[in-house]
Design goal:
single chain; alpha/beta; Restriction Endonuclease; 3 domains; six-stranded mixed β-sheet; two-stranded antiparallel sheet; 8 strands; flat; DUF2130 domain-containing protein
Length: 415
Amino acid sequence: MSHTFCCPHCQQPIDLETSFVQGVEKQLARKYNDHFARQKSDLARREEALRQDRLLVQQQTQAQQNLIQEAVTAQVRRIQIEARQKARAEQDAVITQLQQDLTEKSATVQSLQQQELALLKQQRDLEEKQASLALSVEKKLRDERAAIETKAIQKAQEDHLFHAEQQQGLINALTQQLTEMKRKIEQGSQQIQGEVQEIALEKLLTDTFPFDQIVEVAKGVNGADLIQEVCNDYGRICGRIVYESKRTKTFGGNWIDKLKSDQQRHSGDIAVLVTETMPTGMPRFGLVEGVWVCSFTEVRALATVLRMGVLKVSEVQTASENKGDKMQRLYDYLTGNEFQQCVQSIVRSFQQLQLGLAQEKRAMKRIWAIREKQIDAVIDSTTCMVGAISGIAEGVILELPELELLSDDTPEVLT
């Protein structure tokens, strides 16, 4: 059966089956395109909604973080304020208690003074009564009057003396308490500063003389602050250097005598007083009544020289046992002006060497830094030149492992 027919207008043959299929295909294509457009539009709307949701979540998260940060900041500020208020309240309570104690003591003193005035008034009244009684019965009771007057005067004097002593004792006790409070308050910061210098001195001696034994005298025990037990190369104790650390505004008058007593107590060979304030007329270290006095900056050099002296004395003592006269002369030399001048000269030279070494270190560091910059500049220039040549050679890479090794092995400047 034929599916073609002729067009009545153009007389062209038309295939019915082909025309029907093309119409169906066009209709399906139009429906598919409409469906695809709707899905694409829905997908775009969903993506926009998702983007809006994500932006909202980010804003909410940022807002929560800001709230948390503000809460933490407020909590820290509140804790700081409470801590300051608590410290201020405790301090005010202590001051109030001290003022209250002082007020009570002052009231007690005033009360005693009033009692003394009353007793004096009673004494005057009693004397007047005794005088009146004596005038009325003078002839008859002369002997009794003399005895009564003497006894009354003695009693009044005893009472007056007793109350005066009691009042003076109370005043002295109050004055002593106030002085002790003031001394403790002032001593607090000075004691802390002294302990800091003592700890620094112990660390300095331990680091400088690692083979010696640096012994700290316990707090509350009579004695010096530190004892350096000088040991030779074989670990044998050859002598002791006794140290006392002071960090006050004035030089104490009895420090020397006390340190000499501590030196005898610890069987020390040499005593060293490390003080922040030097004695009057003594700008640098020196020997004062057999005790070496120096500042903290001078103690390292002085201790080094004194330690050498102790080791030398020990060697001479070991080699010259039973030779008391030589040992006495050697001791006189170590405690004399000549040895003091030698020690001062050695310490000054040691300090100059330290200063020169520090200057040389700084100069070498500057030179090394300059050299490193120059080497880096040479390496950078060489690398740029190799790169330029490789570019001109159109992709030919120059292999220079020595240049890479030089760049990797450049030493760092010591700091």
